[in-house]
Automatic annotation (TrEMBL):
UniProt keyword annotation of Lyase present: yes
Residue ranges that the Swiss-Prot or TrEMBL entry lists as coiled coil: none
Residues annotated as domain Amidohydrolase-related: 54-300
InterPro entries: ACMSD, Amidohydro-rel, Metal_Hydrolase, TAT_signal
Protein name: Amidohydrolase-related domain-containing protein
Gene3D superfamilies according to UniProt: Metal-dependent hydrolases
Record keywords, A-Z: Lyase, Signal
KW Ribosomal protein (keyword) present: no
Signal peptide: 1-16
GO molecular function: carboxy-lyase activity; hydrolase activity
Length: 315
């Protein structure tokens, strides 16, 4: 192999580097082209679909602020959001706008709730809107809960993430919110460490809680599974970074039981397809996989959908 002299090598290397910089400079153009391609391409096939899929943990892009929960924005519009769910094989979902999950002011969660209602109206028979609240604004939060339950038939509260919106779950203000959730028979989907909400779960036995995430710490994962197993009014949503740990899904089903484990992805943060594949490839009977992906959420929704506004389209 003929060696290149230093005099020739340096200009050649500089030219290659310039080409790389040029490519990075066109990354937005390249990304737009890729999105057009993905609109025509359904993507790689997933393992054989065994049932419909309900994703109980979705964060839709904010239509008022453009906020996303993506480190690099790829699904930037409502249309992008829905298209990617289609590609992944997600048929239905419970959705809350990113604005209320992240925003710290009262207008953030109020506007986010309007966006979730609009999403459900724009895509009928597809999305169940969730209602968000903030413990720093109990009066406004209670008003939102009552209006959504009585006027719109909404029964799903959350995912609440107090650590992102500057409130905790042990304040008098949040107690008023929980009292309203209990009075109006609503579901509470709440993000917190297990030790942060143990008393809350025990104080409100009449409320169904959903704890999201297989956490990234082994000790906490096993602690969470044990807590859900012990408390029959609690479900586990399997989203989070550690769902791919081999054996953890099978262990959760074994300990908790197949009827209180729900499919959730945390999309638009995480990829729904990866969680679906993990369920489909799990060392579990097919009937249990169907319960995790569809039947458990469907039955829970049917229980709380008093007006039968959402249950009929879950087939």
């Amino acid at each position: 192999m003929k060696k290149m002299s230093r005099r020739k090598f340096i200009p050649a290397a500089a030219s290659a580097a310039a080409g790389a910089v040029l490519t990075m400079g066109n990354i937005r153009k390249t990304h737009a082209q890729a999105k057009r391609h993905s609109a025509e391409n359904p993507g790689l096939p997933l393992p054989k679909k065994i049932c419909p899929v309900i994703d109980c943990h979705l964060h839709s892009p904010s239509t008022s602020t453009g906020k996303l929960q993506q480190w690099y924005p790829v699904q930037t519009t409502t249309e992008d959001f829905v298209h990617y769910l289609n590609r992944c094989g997600v048929d239905y979902g419970v959705a809350a706008s990113v604005r209320g999950v992240e925003g710290k002011e009262k207008n953030d969660f109020i506007q986010a709730n309007r966006e979730s209602l609009a999403l459900a109206a724009q895509y009928p028979n597809r999305f169940i809107p969730a209602c968000l609240v903030n413990g720093r604004f109990p009066q406004e939060s209670v008003r939102e809960l009552i209006e959504h339950r009585t006027k719109h038939g909404v029964f799903w509260v959350g995912e609440l993430a107090g650590y992102m919106t500057d409130f905790t779950y042990d304040t008098p203000g949040f107690k008023k919110i929980m009292d309203t959730i209990a009075e109006y028979d609503m579901i509470c989907h709440i993000h917190a460490r297990t030790e942060q909400i143990e008393q809350l779960v025990r104080d409100y036995r009449q409320v169904t809680f959903i704890l999201p995430h297989f956490t990234p710490v082994k000790k906490r994962i096993f602690s969470r599974i044990a807590f859900v197993k012990e408390n029959k009014n609690v479900y586990l949503d399997i989203s989070g970074v550690s769902f791919s740990r081999m054996g953890i899904l099978e262990y959760a089903v074994k300990e908790i039981g197949a009827d209180r484990v729900l499919f959730g992805s945390d999309y638009t943060v995480n990829d729904p397809a990866s969680v679906i594949v993990r369920v489909l490839n799990a060392e579990l009977p097919t009937e249990i996989k169907k319960h995790v992906l569809f039947h458990n959420a469907k039955e829970l929704i049917a229980k709380y959908d008093k007006a039968k506004k959402f249950t009929p389209f879950l087939r």
